[in-house]
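Why do we bother with a discrete structure alphabet at all? Because it lets us treat a fold like text: something you can write down, compare, and reason about line by line. To make this less abstract, here is a complete entry for NADPH-dependent 7-cyano-7-deazaguanine reductase. Read it the way you would read a sentence in a foreign language you are learning: slowly, and without expecting to understand everything at once.
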Amino acid sequence: MNTPEQSQLGKPAPYVDRYDASLLFPISRQPKRDELGLHGTMPFFGADLWTAFELSWLTPRGKPQVAIAHVTVPCESPNIVESKSFKLYLNSFTNTAFASADAVRDRIRADISEAVWRGAPSQSSVGVRILTPELFDREPVHELDGLSLDRLDIECTEYTPDPTLLTAAFDEMPVEEVLTSNLLKSNCLVTGQPDWGSVQIRYSGPQIDQGQLLRYLVSFRNHNEFHEQCVERIFVDLRERCKPVKLAVYARYTRRGGLDINPFRTSHPIAVPANVRTARQ
């Protein structure tokens, strides 16, 4: 089993400009899920939405092409792909000729699918969409919908995750709310470099104390964990402390190295959000 410490994170890495799928570095999701007490069937559905802004290859006649790639990785896959390895992998397309954008899409789909499902008894596929320059102008920018928690004037003193901050009105009528914050920040599990994000929490059930929820989200500020793991931790803590009937947690993190990662987890089957970037991304 690969560990984050074995990856290329925080280490000098050669620039490989010829296609090389072996650069991809899968890491099992399970050890971090074990920390949350998650075994067997997960209490959520969802996916990790990746956007790759630095993708280029050559035509058969040697002319460079550029594109944006949207990659959707089901959270049911046993592995994530470490982000630096994903960047190195995409860089390896730079001086490699492909017959078409569709050929690039199919190659990325096959390679990422193999990496994230490696070791699983059955294999599935990731979703890949390639946007060529004539489609760039159709890429919208939109902030997460919902009521902003950041409007609250609160005191914050906790900067490592503290689920005991979360409370809900169990003796009152249930509500249905969509709450957002731009104050989510965590750090890379290996390098400690900052990861900046926005989060949307959609739920129905006992009304969550909004001030305490914001304090809880701020408490991730000095926490070292990958994006996907942070979102699953938020989901589990809200589920256990606030007892929502339905719950969905969606975070959009700012890009690093030309990549952004946007995990989505939901308690009930609903459509994965459209991969639409926010202004900070």
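What the structure line is telling us, in plain words: The longest helix spans residues 101-116. The chain has a mean pLDDT of 95.
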